[in-house]
């Protein structure tokens, strides 16, 4: 068997059925075999970064491995920002990268690919020979899962047409470990704090995404009479619960902040307690803090805690309930009917609309889009000034359906993630972006969504500016012109790229567009005009 087919079969043996990427000299034959020999699907993208981002979104949507491929040299360097984003997202991702031949010293695409990869935080795995390909693929996949980060599998181009040894690797497939259940003795400190608290709040993060863990943590909160809150990444986990405070931290609404301020204890499950969740520690002042996490390194990483428990969130929650029942500890009653009433009366629509006849208030648009778009959806945000309203006003059925793309603080990473989410999630996908982010990373890949017939709707809040920079100029009473752009009209651009474009200048026009969305048959772009000086 030729090497390029052996690599393709090895990927299929690891359960890989979809790959995102851009072809070049060093990977085209591998992908040809992947499609023709294994029956896999190759999603061709327009930019190498888009391929890695799509693999990231795919991994998030499916809960499995995301796989991308690029050729050598500049193709790999084009993925650097996307790799950093995926590393910080802790995504199990495999990037199959070709490399120039060791004997080809004058190849103008030569670069030390290991030295490109390692500063991003991604791992590097070298294909050692034509006879170790199956083992090397299996090792790279295992590392991606166990290390929860991208692994770059480096494949020398000269191997492609050499004879290779192929050994089916079905026995090498990675399987998730069983949840870690701690000993009862390790719960003593946490149990003492929980048993003595009078006003507890229960906080859940990404470590509680599993349905069983969610149910267990909610049982625990009800057992101790505590309201519940989440990190941004676990947004809407407790949506519908009468004592759901929403996001805990710098994005909290006033009722949540009042409740958190009165609390004397925070019990955090699967939440890292970073500076945004804790408002740089201010929301922990005067509270006993219990932190439960299956990741030992996460315990006390960002904030000191009074009791740290290493274990699976659901298992620990159930053990704590058992111990509280045995000790006959009574619920605190901090989650009162009065609090539930206040939360039920709160509305995201409680604001003064700042729109005009020719521009739209972002908040009013969000309320209408959130209600009109199918609730069972994948939701992706690019970065920009608009995002703070999006964080609190858009909702999802499950936290897994929300795709976070600003771990590196970069704009332009939303479209690639949205493509992967649409390809892997089997759900309508809604991407919310700014005009700058769309021009930076979305324009070329919009056609990728068209070519692959993905169910994607792009909402662009277009203030014809880099809004975060515009407001800084305004705040210092400076001319904001350097932050502003005379973009083309985006609706006809979307049409030219094979999609359907709409221009929206007021709420009436938005309502008309939303009425047409159920009949869409291709990717859609909605260009919503925003006044940069009238953003809340």
Question: What is the compact description of this entry?
Answer:
The protein is an alpha/beta fold and 536 residues long. The chain contains 19 helices and 18 strands.
Describe the fold and architecture.
The protein is of the alpha/beta class and 536 residues long. The chain has 19 helices and 18 strands. The strands form three sheets. A six-stranded parallel sheet has the order 2-1-3-4-6-5, sandwiched between helices. Strand 1, helix 2 and strand 2 (41-44) form a beta-alpha-beta unit. Helix 9 (211-224) packs parallel to helix 11, helix 13 (362-372) runs parallel beside helix 19 (507-516) and helix 15 packs parallel to helix 16 (435-451).
Please tally the β strands and state the result.
Answer: 18
Arithmetic mean pLDDT? 95
3D shape: globular
> pLDDT below 50 for ≥5 consecutive residues: which ranges?
none
Rounded to an integer, what's the Rg over CA atoms? 25 Å
Helix-strand makeup class = alpha/beta
- Strand order, main sheet: write it out: 2-1-3-4-6-5
Main beta sheet: 6 strands, parallel
Layout of helices and strands, plus pairs?
Elements: H1 3-13, E1 18-21, H2 28-36, E2 41-44, H3 48-62, E3 66-70, H4 74-77, H5 80-89, E4 93-99, H6 113-117, E5 123-126, H7 133-147, E6 150-156, H8 188-196, E7 200-204, H9 211-224, E8 228-230, E9 244-247, H10 254-262, E10 265-269, E11 288-293, E12 307-310, H11 313-326, H12 337-345, H13 362-372, E13 378-381, H14 387-393, E14 402-403, H15 414-425, E15 429-434, H16 435-451, E16 456-462, H17 467-475, H18 490-496, E17 500-504, H19 507-516, E18 524-529
Parallel strand pairs: 1-2, 1-3, 3-4, 4-6, 5-6, 7-8, 7-10, 8-9, 10-11, 11-12, 13-14, 13-15, 15-16, 16-18, 17-18
């Amino acid at each position: 068997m030729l090497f390029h087919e052996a690599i393709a079969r090895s990927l299929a043996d690891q359960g890989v059925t979809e790959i995102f990427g851009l072809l070049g000299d060093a990977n085209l034959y591998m992908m040809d075999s992947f499609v023709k020999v294994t029956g896999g699907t190759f999603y061709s993208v327009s930019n190498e970064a888009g391929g890695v981002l799509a693999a990231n979104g795919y991994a998030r949507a499916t809960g499995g491995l995301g796989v991308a491929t690029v050729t050598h040299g500049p193709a790999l360097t084009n993925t650097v920002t996307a790799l950093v984003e995926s590393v910080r997202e802790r995504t199990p991702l495999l990037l199959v990268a070709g490399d120039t031949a060791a004997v080809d010293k004058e190849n103008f695409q030569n670069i030390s690919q290991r030295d490109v990869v390692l500063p991003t935080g991604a791992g590097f795995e070298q294909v050692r020979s034509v006879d170790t390909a199956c083992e090397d693929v299996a090792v790279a996949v295992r590392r991606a899962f166990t290390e929860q980060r991208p692994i770059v599998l480096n494949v020398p181009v000269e191997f492609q047409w050499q004879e290779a040894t192929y050994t089916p690797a079905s026995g090498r497939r990675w399987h998730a470990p069983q949840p870690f259940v701690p000993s009862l003795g390790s719960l003593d400190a946490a149990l003492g704090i929980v048993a003595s608290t009078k006003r507890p709040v229960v906080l859940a993060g990404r470590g509680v995404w599993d349905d069983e863990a969610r149910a267990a943590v909610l049982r625990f909160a009800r057992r101790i009479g505590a309201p519940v809150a989440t990190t941004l990444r676990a947004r809407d986990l407790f949506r519908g619960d009468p004592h759901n405070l929403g996001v805990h931290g710098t994005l909290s609404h006033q009722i949540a902040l009042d409740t958190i301020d009165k609390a004397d204890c925070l019990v955090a499950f699967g939440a890292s307690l970073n500076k945004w969740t804790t408002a740089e520690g201010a929301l922990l002042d005067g509270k006993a803090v219990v932190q439960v996490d299956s990741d030992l390194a996460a315990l006390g990483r960002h904030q000191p805690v009074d009791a740290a428990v290493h274990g699976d969130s659901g298992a620990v929650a159930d053990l704590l309930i058992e111990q509280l029942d045995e000790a006959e500890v009574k619920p605190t009653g901090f989650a009162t009917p009065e609090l539930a009433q206040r939360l039920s009366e709160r509305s995201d629509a409680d604001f003064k609309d700042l729109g005009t006849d020719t521009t739209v208030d972002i908040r009013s648009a969000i309320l209408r889009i959130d209600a009109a778009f199918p609730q069972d959806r994948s939701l992706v945000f690019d970065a920009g000034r608009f995002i703070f309203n999006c964080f609190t006003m858009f909702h999802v059925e499950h936290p897994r359906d929300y795709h976070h793309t600003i771990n590196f603080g970069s704009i332009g990473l939303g479209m690639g993630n949205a493509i992967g989410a649409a390809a892997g999630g089997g759900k309508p996908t809604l991407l919310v972006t700014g005009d700058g982010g769309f021009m930076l990373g979305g324009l070329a890949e919009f056609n990728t969504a068209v070519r692959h017939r993905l169910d994607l709707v792009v909402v662009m809040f277009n203030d014809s500016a880099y809004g975060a920079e515009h407001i800084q100029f305004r705040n210092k009473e400076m001319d904001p012109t350097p932050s502003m752009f005379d973009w083309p009209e985006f609706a006809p651009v979307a049409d030219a790229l094979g999609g359907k474009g709409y221009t929206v200048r007021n709420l009436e026009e938005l309502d008309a567009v939303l009425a047409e969305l159920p009949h869409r048959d291709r990717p859609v772009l909605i260009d919503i005009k925003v006044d940069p000086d009238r953003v809340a």
